Amino acid sequence: MKVRTKKSEHSASIGWRERRRSALIIVSVFMLALSIRFLYLWEYSSCPTFRVPVVDSETYDRHARLLAVEGEIDRRFFWQGFFYPFYLAGAYALTGGSILWARIIQAMIGSALCMLVYRLGSEIFNRKTGLVAGILAALYGPSVFFECELLSTGWAAVWSVVLLLLILAAGMRHDLFLYVFSGIAGGLSIITRATFVPFLAVSFVWLLYRFQRSRRSPKATALRAAVCVSGFLLVAIPVSVMCYRETGNFNPLPQSGPINLFIGNNPDTDRTIMIRPGAEWRELTRMPELHDSKSEHDDRRYFMGLFWNYVMLHPGDYLRGIAGKTVRFMSSRELPRNVDVYTARGYSRIFSVLTWKASRFGFPFGVLLPFAMLGLIRRRREIPAPVWFYLVLYPLSIILVFVTSRYRTPVMPVIVVPAAAGAMELYGVFKKRRWKMSAIMTAAVVVIALISSAAGPFVTEDHDYEAEMHCSVGFELGKQGRLEEAEVQLREALELEPGYGDAHKHLGLVLSGQRRHEEALKHLEQALKQKPESYLLRYYIGVTLLNLGRDEEAREHLADALARARTAKESSLVRQIEQLPIVSPPHP
Fold it and tell me: Where in the chain is the domain with CATH 1.25.40.10?
């Protein structure tokens, strides 16, 4: 019979108190994060895009609804990472297709991520550092924004921390189940974002090398390798099979990889990175077709060919581009592309406190980065190899393509851990009154903040994203037949940017749909002044003129549109024009 001594009872009491304290910290971090995210959602609900997704969010929303309601997968489903539309379809199936509930679920997942950040910080350093890291993750504004958007960014951040926790645990305990779960999480991560591939490959090799070095048998090492790969294939093979059935391409990676490589690596990246959704994007995606591409496989090969030609024929320019993108990645500001973080500030007071910029300085990254650098230097011996792999390889995989806030944000839940360590280091030297060291470390933080804010403004920052947001919402509302609401949004876009060609075009189409052809014509002609080479605008104007009974002018525009459409190999439009004259509103 085992007798409990006073000493064992005391140890058990201490252990219970420690567990209770740890649980209290975890719950507190979660509640802080959830409170901020719920308050943000409540305030941000007035934003036009809250219930009308646009651009990539609209694509995800459309594919998820098709899967949730009709059980079908469109071939364009595989254009971007596959995991997020699967998740969103599940969320819609559970909530009756509610965008609000999808955002609430994501806010809860983002809050749970802050608890995992606390765990990661505690594992690498100590509980206090973990607590600071969890609080930083809870308060990091750009993460709050992207976690609540219909985008895969929040899930990419989750896999970043989950993978590190699993790999670190497997490297220490060598449990077979940890290897299986690492492989499964790795598969889920790459079908969320392909940028995980380099980190996964190096980390899995490191795991096996570490196991082999512990003087284990080759058979045991091979078993763990097989288990890890099996976990990965358990995810990768089913989605690859689904992709093959729809596209003919057996691949767990998204179809957009080659075109994104071209966008970020070519002789005129400032132009390609600023290609806007709509007609400009369509022109880009049709480039392979104009060079006799016959399939989506040929399309991908065409863009990969352009990328490799640029790398091989202009290696100096390519390397300078990589250096420039590295500077962008380190910028204190949140760089937009199709999504601009700073537009959200006008719809949420809490977010305007958590995220802002003053001149070239951006908060919070302008503060987070210097403290992270301080922590990485001062506590470098405590940081395990997989964390270093992640902090080097994941940013590099972004830099090799192109840099935006949306792609950089998944790195933040990991960066906050050394940032918390750096903050604790500075607090420690202040507390010990080591004034000289305090001054040196403070100066280092300030210098790094200034350096990260010096470059720019970059080309993506010189654009009116608020006007584009209203225009995109108006376009989506027009597609849904909500013409009066669409008109309001499009006029708001023109109020912000009177010469906005796409807003004039979409407003013209909306007015035509309301049979207000005279008003429509004025806006379509204004749009044509912005893009005189557009055969679509000439077609829209021609049909509008037909509806006004101005046949002679209509024939002139339609003949011009037909000639340009034939040159552009736009066969569907050619057939439409050849069936005219008709008396009906034009359709986009």
Answer: 465-578
